[in-house]
């Protein structure tokens, strides 16, 4: 298994340009919200990386208080000056998200950076063989989140705030390459298109959609694993990225250096220095890194 890359350099681990300790990536005095932030997941590493970058206040959101407490403890041990607030909530439920948004606003104030790394995966199945309610619940947890964000969190943001929504490289793949993942892939594709609308409808909000790379998580093992979902096949193992890569890339997206990528879908594996060097090329093409229907290039004819 191999992945195409817009940049010649395909990153699988962190590097100096995205290091949270780099002054240009500082989020000192910023307030951050991270969903899917239970210990052991990508969101937990994202929260830790923002703490390393100097975030003053971080709200971590997830369904399980125990795993969130693990992340809070890890941040407290490494960065004791960072104030961490736990919000137990289900990102798939509007009422739960509304309560979390209110509690976070009361506890730590308006926010500057929001990173959604919550994940949901229904049991693998064909469409005909799937339990419809279970699949639809997972679809809604992913695809409805931009609505929850727009209604409950966006009004509580500071000016020029940043919203980073983790997606999945799976949304790029044809169905034949990822069988029995219809609900998950379709939901991710829908969420990416909704991010596009969020960016247009909120011109003062910095919106980014991100593929976090292929990370060795329990979810990845469910999709590609064998021997009971405990191991990964060699083809997948060869393209794995270290969890520090999406975590640090997310911090970099919050910096001014990433402004030219606003409203676009990017991969954390793409080298940011090369992306920056191709800024004019990217800005010139309004459809580049956008979710549109491929196969029929509907666009204005160049004169």
UniProtKB/TrEMBL annotation:
Going by the entry's taxonomy, the superkingdom of the source organism is recorded as Eukaryota
Pfam families reported for this sequence = adh_short
Among SUPFAM superfamilies, the record links this protein to: NAD(P)-binding Rossmann-fold domains
Q: Where are the transmembrane segments?
A: none
Listed InterPro entries: NAD(P)-bd_dom_sf, SDR_fam
Protein name according to UniProt: NAD(P)-binding protein
């Amino acid at each position: 298994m191999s992945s195409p890359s817009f940049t010649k350099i395909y990153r699988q681990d962190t590097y100096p340009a995205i290091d949270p300790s780099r002054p240009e990536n500082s989020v000192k005095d910023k307030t951050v919200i991270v969903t899917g932030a239970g210990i052991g997941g990508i969101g937990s590493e994202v929260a830790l990386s923002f703490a390393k970058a100097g975030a003053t206040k971080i709200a971590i959101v997830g369904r399980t208080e125990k795993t969130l407490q693990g992340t809070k403890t890890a941040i407290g041990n490494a960065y004791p000056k960072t104030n961490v607030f736990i919000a137990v909530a289900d990102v798939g439920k509007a009422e739960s998200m509304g309560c979390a948004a209110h509690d976070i606003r009361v506890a730590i104030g308006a926010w500057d950076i929001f990173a959604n790394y919550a994940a949901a995966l229904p049991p693998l199945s064909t469409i005909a063989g799937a339990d419809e309610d279970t699949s639809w619940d997972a679809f809604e947890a992913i695809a409805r989140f931009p609505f929850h964000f727009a209604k409950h969190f966006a009004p509580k943001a500071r000016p020029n705030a940043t919203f980073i929504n983790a997606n999945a490289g799976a949304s790029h793949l044809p169905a034949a390459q990822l069988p029995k993942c219809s609900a998950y892939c379709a939901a991710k594709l829908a969420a990416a298109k909704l991010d596009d609308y969020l960016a247009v409808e909120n011109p003062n909000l910095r919106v980014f959609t991100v593929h976090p790379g292929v990370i060795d998580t329990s979810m990845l093992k469910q999709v590609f694993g064998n021997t009971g979902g405990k191991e990964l096949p060699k083809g997948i193992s060869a393209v794995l990225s270290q969890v520090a890569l999406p975590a640090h890339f997310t911090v970099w997206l919050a910096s001014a250096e990433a402004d030219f990528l606003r409203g676009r879908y990017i991969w954390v594996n793409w080298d940011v220095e090369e992306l920056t060097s191709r800024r004019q090329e990217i800005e010139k093409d309004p459809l580049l890194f956008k979710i549109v229907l491929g196969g029929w290039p509907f666009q204005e004819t160049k004169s």
